[in-house]
Amino acid sequence: MKILIVDDDPTTSKSLEGLPMDISECHALRRGDAAVRAVRNALKHRDPFDLITIDIALPDMDGTKVALEIRKLEKDMEVPKERAAFIMIITAHADEGTVRTSFSAGCNAFVVKPFKNETIVNAIAKSKLKSQLLKDPKADQKAVDPVEIVLNRLASGKIRMASLPEISIKLNEMAKKGLDFKVIGNLIKQDMAITAKIMSVSNSAYYGAVAKTKTVDEAISRLGLVSTKQYVDAICNRKLFVSADKKYAQFAQELWEHSLYCAVAAQVVVDTLKLELKSDAFSIGLLHDIGKIFLLQMSEELEAKNQLSGNIDSESLFRSIEKHHNMIGAKALKSWNFSKEYIEGALLHDDPGKTDAPSKELLVLHFANALAKTMTHNQPIQADVNLEDLDSTRLLKITPDIIVNIKERVEKQLPLYN
């Protein structure tokens, strides 16, 4: 079960996080506006919250108003009644007017502080949503995790992981030895789409040149070898982030959007702070979530061949992809001989604290990943993250004014890659 706790009292939030239920995810937010954004994004990404507890007295808005906004979102997005969230108001004020207003706002239950966690469970058990929230243990045994099946078949050699475009792999090998003007030019000329894009970017207003470039060599000279490689990487890898199944197409598109934002943000951070890195921050950002698209595509392949059985739904698939993508991404990058900075980025981009001495590349990626989420709103919980509080922000000495500057530069540069 996926739970959202909206309460500015950390003691209450901590207590609710310990609910005696089978909880897959538990997110805690302190503000009503952040909760509404989180629910909107969760619905948009087909990963809704099952249970939402709301304190009636929040710092920015009344809890009943939050409930009303959530019900309006569900109505606008045509969420079936049986899939609507179970909303529970939690408050120290149990007067008749408050209770009546809460239920009028669409709440399912009303709990008075102080309370025991059993009270929450009992309230759900008495509701018509019991079957959705308190599932039969036997039913859980029948549920299938498609990603687990993918991993098992991958380990046994029954299926193979997709590969990066050949040009991307060649550029990676070239980067290790030092980018070569002639070689990179010959690679670009092999693909008309890449040639056209490189020429277009070199003649864009961003580079401010009066004279138009007429050849690939002139374009590379104007852009520089590093930037040229980055544009080629973006063009090549865009083709990977697709889904043959319509129900997953939006997920794949948003995953690409986030990856590109992260890549551009990483490079902007490097340029802004004038950092010297061992590996290309842009490409590390572009590939940090590569495990997600590969797991999605392999799951799709098995599903299309009717090789998956049991209860499978997109929500559980996305959650499982989130759980396993770091390991798969790192494994893939290692198999293609990418440097340890790329592998570490795929493995630890969500939590650089898991290593005692995070590299500059990892810190840049961690900050860029968080920044990209706030700019694209692809992750519901990210709506309440303060970039200034991140360890990577502190270690890189990124001040609030620098954050503003980085965001502005990212928005300015991003169109060049689309």
Could you name the key traits of this structure?
418 residues, mainly alpha, 21 helices, 59% helix
- How many distinct beta strands? 5
Largest beta-sheet details: 5 strands, parallel
Low-confidence stretches: 135-142, 379-383
Ends apart, CA distance between termini: 37 Å
**Biggest sheet: strands side by side, in what order?**
2-1-3-4-5
The protein's oligomeric status is: single chain
Beta-strand residue fraction: 5-15%
Decide which structural class fits the backbone: mainly alpha
Mean pLDDT score: 83
The gross shape turns out to be: globular
SS element count, helices: 21
How are the secondary structure elements laid out?
Blueprint: E1 2-6, H1 10-17, E2 25-29, H2 32-44, E3 51-55, H3 63-76, E4 86-91, H4 96-104, E5 109-112, H5 117-125, H6 130-133, H7 137-142, H8 146-156, H9 166-177, H10 181-189, H11 192-202, H12 216-223, H13 225-238, H14 246-273, H15 281-287, H16 290-304, H17 314-335, H18 340-348, H19 360-376, H20 391-395, H21 400-413
Parallel strand pairs: 1-2, 1-3, 3-4, 4-5
Helix pairs in contact: 2-3, 8-16, 10-12, 11-12, 11-13, 14-15, 14-19, 14-21, 15-18, 16-17, 17-18, 18-19
